[in-house]
User: What shape does this take?
Amino acid sequence: MIIQLNSTISSTAKMALNEKLAQYGYSHNEVTTQFGNYIIGVGKKSFDIREIGRMEGIKDIHRVSDAYKLVSKKWKVEDTQIDFGDFKIGTGHFSIMAGPCSIESEEQIISAIEHLKANNIRIMRGGVYKPRSSPYSFRGLGMDGLKMFSSLCKENDIKIITEVMMVEQIDEMINYIDIFQVGARNSQNFNLLDALGEVDKPVLLKRGISGTIDELLQGAEYIFSHGNEKIMLCERGIRSYEMAYRNTMDINAIAMLKEKTHLPVIADPSHGIGLRKFVEPIALASIMGGADGVIMEVHHVPEKAFSDGQQTLNYQEAARTYDRMRKTFELRESF
Ligand code: PEP
Ligand code: MN
Assistant: This one.
């Protein structure tokens, strides 16, 4: 169960609450985020929750039977919106994040920013720490690349999403990014998720390569329960027996996640199928499946990209896709 506390709750009232929970054999876990104070009670015994609801200092109480609690839709009336001041990500808004797989050079960043601005896109993606299957592949420009990426984006009022791979990178990256991306390979790196719960920056958590929906939600629960409510989930394809494409984009998961959680759900059709030709149809299908946004790879010359060129669109192809994605979103919202 989730017990929402009033911010003014006294320590005596808190103690009384903890005693009550202990009496029913419930563990109590206190969570303080940028938006609220909660006690998560985990136990089996059923009792009348109004007994707790009418205690001093309690704002609200909800029974949540899911293994994950705070990210569940069962207690939160309104879906989570990530607020960037002049735009939002979440239910009712359609967001596009686009850019290269890897940050490569100043020239590349400048051309991508120009492309994004021409297409009214507010968030640029680009990795500076790259998890690569082979240790001999390009592994990113690191902090030098991020500093260049950040100063060019700030000048142009573009937000940055980039991957963080280790706990130690969070502090050095935090002033240069707007959204931390947790990649598929780190989806269950619980130390990293704990640490991202301690910061006040949005986190986009990707589904693990063989991760289940439940594991993704439990991963998000780590971030929330450590204090950060600004979380987005990302379906980026899973490994299946099918070898005809890089991954199997699980559009089912998008529909299912929108049912199970109040968090925004973002589709990554680039990694989801891994083939340029099919990025657009899979993006459109993801939107019909309920996605609140799409993150995709674009590059001025995809054939020359340092990584993931085979799934990257050029600017002309991308512009057509943005237009069709926006139309698809409008269509879905009109149903
Ligand atoms: C990426 O976004 O370039 C990336 C490495 O993604 P994933 O973690 O989904 O493989
Ligand atoms: Mn990539």
